[in-house]
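Backbone-to-sequence.
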């Protein structure tokens, strides 16, 4: 999610720089500035909530899969510990090897799941970010904004309420 927000932040920064390049005399011109909390917009938008819900379901399913494998390993570990005196060295060695291979398999499954979740997040966020980019660009053009900054990433600590466009951008994203 952070990567997606960074992409939008970069787009906002590019919009800012292009707006500044268009202003010939920044000291003489009155800059029209807008601020948007992009992270808030993404997390509270209908599309953002739907994406978050899909990711949560996918995460929960993958976590259940990991829990099953982990439970099997814990049972195998317990079996190894209980049979340590009675088992022959060959059987014990085979069980320990099976346990170690199970641990590797669990780690691989965990990494695979993390990669799949990250890929799915990018896939789900891409259309949201594209819509958001279009909304911000259109809003900047229609409102004759010189700069629209991202409150959540650009270090904007304070803005007058009339400069905050978060609510309007969120409404447009939800409408689209």
């Amino acid at each position: 999610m952070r990567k997606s927000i960074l992409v939008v932040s970069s787009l906002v920064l590019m919009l800012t720089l292009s707006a500044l390049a268009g202003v010939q005399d920044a000291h003489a011109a009155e800059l029209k500035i807008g601020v948007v909390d992009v992270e808030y917009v993404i997390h509270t938008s209908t599309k953002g909530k739907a994406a978050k819900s899909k990711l949560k379901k996918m995460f929960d399913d993958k976590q259940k899969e990991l829990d099953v494998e982990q439970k099997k390993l814990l049972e195998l570990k317990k079996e190894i510990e209980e049979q340590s005196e009675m088992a022959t060295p060959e059987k014990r060695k085979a069980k320990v090897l099976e346990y170690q291979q199970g641990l590797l398999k669990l780690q691989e499954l965990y990494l695979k799941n993390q990669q799949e979740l990250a890929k799915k997040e990018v896939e789900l966020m891409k259309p949201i970010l594209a819509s958001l980019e279009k909304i911000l660009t259109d809003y900047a053009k229609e409102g004759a904004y010189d700069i629209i900054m991202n409150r959540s990433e650009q270090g904007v600590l304070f803005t007058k309420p009339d400069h905050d466009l978060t609510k309007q951008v969120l409404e447009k994203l939800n409408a689209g």
